[in-house]
Amino acid sequence: MCHLTAAAIPGIVVLALAGCAPVTTASVQPASSMALASVGAPPNSNGSSQVIDGFIIDTGPPQPVDPQGRYYVEFRARWINHTYIVYGRLDATGNPLDQHFIALYPNSGVLGLAAGSLPLIVPATTLPVAGDKDADMLAVYRRTIDAAQYEKIQNFVYQTRSNPHHYWNLYTINCNYFAAQIATAVGLKVPVLYAQVTPLYIKQLESLNEEGSARLSP
User: Fold this and answer.
1) pLDDT tens digit sequence for 146-168
2) Beta-carbon neighbour count of residue 30 at 10 Å?
3) H-assigned helices in the chain
4) Is pLDDT at 190 greater than 50 in this prediction?
């Protein structure tokens, strides 16, 4: 969650609070469940992942990758004003075989958003929250990556989730900032202003790296 100008803070904060909700936990399933098979993910022998709302959540050490495999990372801006990241394998035609998820979002729903909209740092989660699965996408940027880049994402995710404490602020350590860390890990250029609406941030990320890969929803 982020903003454009100080004058726009009240309106954007109200908009953000109107669309937020606490972390979704009702649909958590172990990685060995049928839900995992439905998204085509390879089973993890060490049980280091689970499924939440159809997204695979990696919680353990990085898994082996195929040096000749095809992978992707996708930066999504959804309604209302939140960026999250999915990554995974591609099939021979370039379609995703699975969707691994990571993001940064304040805990405690409305209260967390309200507190983080002040000059405060609040506890955060890297798990999906209400809206990530069903909300309309406002901008999407997918980048095909190789096995070495995919390993870097896995390492970033593992290091991030190995630390039980995560923090968020609307203007600094926000979802765009978090997306930029992953983009940097795979060698992408990133916009330096994190405090802006998420579709604009994703479009800028795309324009810095390649034309024609991000798209605005109609």
Assistant:
1) 999 999 999 999 999 999 999 99
2) 11
3) 9-19, 34-38, 109-116, 147-162, 175-185, 198-209
4) yes
pTM of the model: 0.79
110/74 Cα distance (integer angstroms): 27
Provide the CB-side half-sphere exposure for 115 (13 A, CA). 15
Over the stretch 85-143, which tens digit does the pLDDT of each residue have? 999 999 999 999 999 999 999 998 888 888 998 989 999 999 999 999 999 999 999 99
Residue 194 one-letter amino acid: Y
For residue 81, what are the domain limits? Answer: 6-216
Contact indicator for 168, 106 with CB cutoff of 8 Å: yes
Q: Which residues pair with 49 in a beta bridge?
A: 58
Residue owning tokens 């998420």: 198
Span 15-43, pLDDT tens digits: 343 333 333 332 443 333 323 333 444 54
What tokens does 189 get? 């250029």
Count H helices, E strands: the chain? 6, 11
Q: Is residue 143 part of a domain?
A: yes
**Looking at the 3D structure of the chain, how many domains does it have?**
1
Query: Could you tell me if residue 210 is inside a domain?
Result: yes
Q: Is residue 1 part of a domain?
A: no
Indicate whether 60 belongs to any domain.
yes
CA trace torsion 209, 212, 215, 218 (10° rounding): 160
